[in-house]
Structure formats: structure tokens, C-alpha cells
Amino acid sequence: KWAALLPNSITLASVLSSCAQLGNLILGRSVHGLGIKLGLEESIMRNSLMDMYAKCSMIGDARYIFETILDKDMVAWNSIISGYTQNGCAYQALQLFHQMRSESYAPDSITLVSVLSACASLGALRVGLALHAYSTKGGLLTSNIFVGTALLNFYAKCGDAKSARMVFDGMEEKNTITWSAMIGGYGMQGDSSGSLALFSEMLKQNLEPNEVIFTTILSACSHAGMSGQGWGYFNSICQQYKFVPSVKHYACIVDLLARVGRLEEALEFIEKMPIQPDISVFGAFLHGCGLHSRFDLGEVVIKKLLQLDPDEACYFVLISNLYALDGRWNQVSQVRELMRKRKFSKYPGCSLVEMDIRNDISPVRMECFG
């Protein structure tokens, strides 16, 4: 009687899928233990376990499950490669992809999306260009919206807006994510006019923008000094499209006002925000204070920052930068000494780029690295 009520692999795989979506690692481990106890070792169970561990940020456990599979299929390869990509381990994802190819497995559309995302994170042009050729030969580029979107996003993040637009124009089908990727690609290149023009084209096709697109458009208006148009788009988020503006949208408006010197208005805007401002909001305001030498207003925000969270290292970096712009080096030294005493640290950024792959990458990139 009770044996008939015991779950099978399909049942546990469904539960694991729910655990993955919810990020519930504790319940996922319990289901894993139950599967072992019941002797359920089918591939559907192992693939679901890999997906669950990867989405719960336990990529090491996902890799362990993967290595125990003797008869690996494309579902297993795609699960582990996607898992590494989702967890920000792009280099390891590419290593697994090369291992997969060495074992004579042919990548499918799911593989291409994950690997192209990893290439975009690393700026890995050689692999990305090879995948472009492969997807074109296999007919996936124009027919598969996910592959096309991943490829144009790859080119955009590698600084090649021209190739990204070529992919975009060649796609038979486009969704909001595709439009968002291309509009964002122009934004990453600092091409505000390109972002705004494509956004207008999107609206003419009766497509509704998402929150990511609005962030890009508000940023484009800010960099182009189009404060009036930026305000109009911000108001349309609530009134026309019924979104609740995120802190990123508020940060864009603060940046828009601060860049054109409307700092008192920007400060009033911050004080009236219905949500808690974060580092992006304060950073945009202090940047404007530095641009327009309004260090008096910067001091007002500095006091608010220290009251808001005296233990946030990023705030101290903003304060130090503002003092440096004003030439107040004694205060800079004091802030940095305080950071050392509190054992705050900020890891320096770095960039990894491949060189001499193409000679028609963006002019800015060629100027920087030529």
C-alpha cells in the first residue's frame, strides 16, 4: 500500500525544478537524499540535481553530479555549461565547452546561448566568431530568436555595435529582449542617438518596452543632456506602462538632473523618493557635484550617507573621490585612514580583451588598444 505512494524519478525531478526556481537549497538537498535512499539514479534525476545546485549557487556540487554521469548526453552538458555561465564562471564554461567538442558532441541552440553569454562576459572574440559561423551554417542564427539575441548581445559587449546591428537586422523574429539587447548595445557604446532612434522604431511597431529598456533610454537621455525627454520617459513608466520605477530608474533621473547642473532639484528628488536610495543614486549626485564644483551640496549628501550606513565601504569611496575633486587632500587621507582602520577594502577593476582579431571593431576600442 505505502510502496505505491513512493515518488519516482519524474516526481522528484519536478520537485527539484521547483527548488531551483525558488533557490531552496535545503529542500533540494533533502530531495537529493531521498533520491539516493530510494535508489533513483536515472538521468532525469541527475540533470535536475545539476540544475538545482547550479541555480542555488552550489556549482561545485553540480560539477560533482556531472562527473558521476558515465553516459553524458547533451542535456547534461548543457546543464553544467549553463550552470557555470549563470554563476559568473565564464572561463570554466568555455573549458567545458571545449571538452564537450573534443568528445565529439555537437552544440545545439541551448549550448550556443550559454557559451555566447560566457564569451560576452570574457570578451572572447575568437570563440564567439566561430560560434557565429557555426550558427549561420546550421541555420540557427535567423530562425532561433534566443541564439540571435545571444549573438548580438555578444557583439555589443565586445564593442562591435555594427556587427550586433547586422545580426539584429537579419533576425526573422524579434521579441522585447532582442530589442532590449540592441538598444542596450548602443548604450554601452555611448551612442545615445542610436539607442533613442531604435527605441522610437520599437514603439512604432507597437511593442511594449520593459524595465531594462527604460533604464537604457533614461541613461541615454542623461548622457545626451535631454532632461525634458528623460522626464517624459520616466513619467510614462508609471502612467502609460504601469511599471513601478526601480532604484536604477531613479538613479538615471538623478544623473540626468545632476549632469545639467540642476543639483538642488536632484537633491529634492532624492529626498522625495518612495524607496531607499542606494549607492547608484548617491554616486550620480556626487558626480554632478564634482562636475559643477558644488561641493557644498556634496557635503550635505555625505552627512546623509554616514547616517544611512556608516559601515558601507562604497560610501567612503564616494566621499574620498569628492574630496579629491575639491583638492582637499587632507580629508582624502583621513577618509582612507578611517577605511584602513575599519578594514574596508575595494578590489581594483581590471579588463581582459583579445587583440588583433578584427580590424573593424569600434573606433573607441581601436583607439584605446591600438
From TrEMBL:
PPR repeats lie at residues 73-107, 175-209. GO terms for molecular function: RNA binding. Transmembrane segments: none annotated. Keywords: Repeat. GO terms for biological process: RNA modification. This is Pentatricopeptide repeat-containing protein At2g03380, mitochondrial. The lineage of its organism: Eukaryota, Viridiplantae, Streptophyta, Embryophyta, Tracheophyta. The gene is LOC107409572. The chain holds residues 343 to 712 of 712 of the full protein.
